[in-house]
Write a structure and sequence with these properties.
The complex is a heterodimer of chains A (about 325) and B (about 350). Chain A is an alpha/beta fold and about 325 residues long. Chain A has ten helices and twelve strands. Helix content of chain A is about 30%, strand content about 25%. In chain A, a hairpin with a 2-residue loop joins strand 11 and strand 12. The longest helix of chain B has about 40 residues. Classes of the chains: A alpha/beta (about 325), B mainly alpha (about 350).
């Protein structure tokens, strides 16, 4: 079983001081395929960032993995010794573009010195000059200005900082890049440049796959090959970009698409609908399908049992209506 | 280009510090004179107890008033104070007449410096290490050390001084009750004098260092805890940097405010140990100032507060300059790039 990165029946809960558990990721199975951008979308608090944290092995208490595993190249990364994960996986197999990327660089360190620290951490025999040459070559290849290497983070604009982080994140040629809301703090122009950079990394074969976590569906329309929709800690629908955007099947996905401004012809004429209600409290989840209290088309079974997966072609849906 | 900007920044700062100095020095003149009571009256009363005749007292009074310049109007006194100050003349002490204020300060200064600099440095270094380890380790170690530090740093240092004095000098006479050296001994460079001074040094040093360590540890712990949750820490770890390296980043950044703290401690060290020195009758600036205030000895008060003023301003000035070298963000602000 040679896989790039796969979450299998993953359950990751935040345990609060009073003992209650927030089930942010509750039984998710999701695989990243070679040469794809996998979009992971959902409302705030649906668990997408938690899923990203566990899949990039950057989760910290109070978040704990309760069950399931994260596999890469046939081994479970969650049971691998942390020191081995740090040396062999982090930055080298799986890399991240963090959510708060604006402050992801040490404010009192030049970009160049972080690049040196990171390269020497993974290649102890590398000299400083070699590390700088490598970083410079990569920066030129991706047509960023070389001056960023000699800059302090506060000297870079928001968009440039984000692009710098993406270059640093992919300096070790990782297979998988997990980007958590990489563009949400940027203006549209910078967003576009960042997306172009991500796609260029994929196109040049520097990285093999991207997991792109966002709440902005129109963005996924531009970048994603496949999209996974999350709701209250679970996946509701996974399929190709076309299937999810243009012919969603799960009522939640449909409602999500219906509430979105998309300049596509046949959607353009429809009314924008808000989804009634609010997402459930992750401490106190409804029995059965988690979406049923807000679902317009619920069946009696929806409030009793969780819907099983229904696989049709490349699309998987978790909904009683599809059974 | 860069150099000239920096020079301009330094000169601009110097201008402000000069203004602050002039204001402080004026206050040094005014404030002692607001203490009720005429210093010459105090001296005359002491003579009267000795049985000197009253007409003689009146003559002595006038003589002293003329000698100290207290018969002049306030603004004339103020002008001559400034003139003398810029000539480097701090005047003559009233209570130790005709002792020169500058000589008295010269005698007291080494004692205060010897007491304070090691306390501040050792307290700062140990406190920061302790605070950093607390933040990094967390758990039970943190709970025990942090609570103790909190308790200790909130004990007024003079209370601790009195407790130590009672426990280790009066109840169990291990250390002397006070003074900088034994009675009958005389300050010289001999080894026996050094040992004697060290023996007297222990209690005042202990009473201050414990409080200093506690205070610094709390500050450092808070800063380090904050830095440990920042995005750059998470990112560096996600990129596979080992903990040691990340902790290095964190502590460098957490140190920045601590460096200000260190400089301010140095600035306030001259006046800071006033009560400690009094409790242990330590022959430093603190004791000198304390006695001077009690005797309303204007020139001596002015001399002591002048030393304190200079120390505070100098320390702050150095911090202003040094900070730019440590933090690139502040350097940019100094050079007007932001």
């Amino acid at each position: 079983m040679k896989n790039l990165l796969k979450a299998q029946d993953l359950r990751a809960y935040y345990r609060l001081v009073d003992g209650t558990e927030i089930k942010a990721v509750d039984g998710v199975t999701l695989e990243l395929r070679p040469n794809e951008v996998l979009g992971i979308a959902g409302e705030s608090g649906c668990g997408k960032s938690t899923l990203a944290a566990v899949m990039s092995l950057t989760h910290n208490p109070p978040l704990r993995v309760v069950d399931g595993h994260v596999a890469a190249n046939g081994s479970n990364l969650l049971t691998m010794p942390p020191e081995q994960v740090r040396r062999e996986i982090k930055g080298r197999h799986i890399s991240v573009v963090p959510q708060g990327a604006m402050n992801a660089l040490n404010p009192t360190q030049r970009v160049r010195n972080f690049a040196i620290d990171m390269l020497q951490e993974h290649f102890p025999e590398m000299t400083k000059a070699q590390a700088i040459d490598l970083a410079r070559a990569r920066i030129e290849e991706l047509s960023l200005p070389v001056r960023v290497l000699d800059s302090y983070p506060h000297e870079l604009s928001g968009g440039m900082k984000q692009r710098t982080i993406i270059v640093l994140s992919t300096l070790l040629d990782p297979k998988v890049l997990i980007a958590d809301e990489p563009t949400s703090a940027l203006d549209v122009t910078s967003q576009k440049i960042v997306i172009k950079l991500l796609l260029a990394l994929l196109g040049e074969g520097i990285i093999t796959s991207i997991a792109f976590i966002t709440h902005e569906l129109p963005l996924l329309r531009q970048v994603a090959d496949r999209i996974a929709i999350m709701y209250a800690g679970k996946l509701v629908e996974v399929g190709s970009m076309d299937e999810i955007i243009f012919s969603p099947e799960h009522p939640y996905t449909r409602a999500l698409m219906g509430s979105m401004l998309v300049p596509e012809k046949h959607i353009r004429e429809q009314r924008i609908e808000a989804i009634p209600g609010v997402p459930p409290d992750l401490k106190d989840l409804p029995i059965g399908c988690r979406f049923h209290p807000r679902c317009q088309k619920r069946l009696p079974v929806c409030s009793q049992e969780e819907p099983p997966a229904k696989i049709v072609g490349d699309r998987t849906t978790w909904c009683w209506l599809m059974q | 280009m860069l150099k000239s900007k920096f020079t301009r920044y330094v000169f601009q700062k110097l201008g402000w510090y000069l203004l602050a100095f002039l204001i402080a020095v004026s206050l040094n003149f005014i404030l002692p004179r607001l203490i009720p009571g005429n210093p010459v009256n105090v001296m005359i009363n002491q003579l009267a107890v000795g049985g000197v005749q009253s007409d003689a007292l009146a003559r002595i009074y006038e003589n002293y008033m003329r000698e100290f310049g207290l018969d002049q109007p306030m603004h004339i006194q103020f002008i001559s104070y400034f003139r003398n100050l810029f000539r480097g003349d701090l005047g003559t002490s009233f209570m130790l007449y005709p002792g020169k204020v500058s000589d008295l300060i010269k005698e007291a200064l080494p004692w205060t410096i010897a007491l304070q600099i090691p306390t501040i440095l050792v307290g700062w270094i140990l406190g920061n290490i302790l605070g950093a380890v607390c933040a990094y380790k967390g758990g039970r170690f943190d709970a025990v050390v942090f609570t103790s530090a909190l308790a200790v740093s909130n004990v007024p240092y003079y209370c601790l001084a009195i407790i130590l004095l009672y426990g280790l000098a009066v109840h169990n006479p291990i250390f002397p009750v006070g003074g900088g050296y034994s009675f009958g001994n005389f300050p010289d460079l001999s080894f026996s004098f050094f040992l004697d001074a060290l023996h007297h040094y222990t209690l005042p040093f202990l009473s201050m260092i414990v409080v200093a360590i506690g205070g610094q540890a709390i500050g450092m712990r808070e800063m380090a805890l904050y830095e440990l949750t920042t995005d750059y820490v998470h990112y560096s770890k996600a990129m596979g940097l080992r903990d040691k390296k990340v902790v290095g980043y964190v502590f460098r950044n957490a140190m920045l405010p601590q460096i200000t703290g260190l400089a301010i401690s140095f600035g306030t060290m001259m006046g800071g140990a006033l009560v400690t020195e009094s409790v242990f009758s330590y022959p430093g600036i603190g004791s000198l100032l304390f006695t001077a205030i009690r005797q309303t000895d204007y020139p001596l008060i002015q001399g002591c507060t002048l030393i304190i003023t200079i120390a505070v301003l100098l320390a702050n000035f150095l911090v202003d300059i040094a900070y730019g070298f440590i933090d690139p963000r502040i350097r940019a602000a100094q050079l007007g790039e932001r």
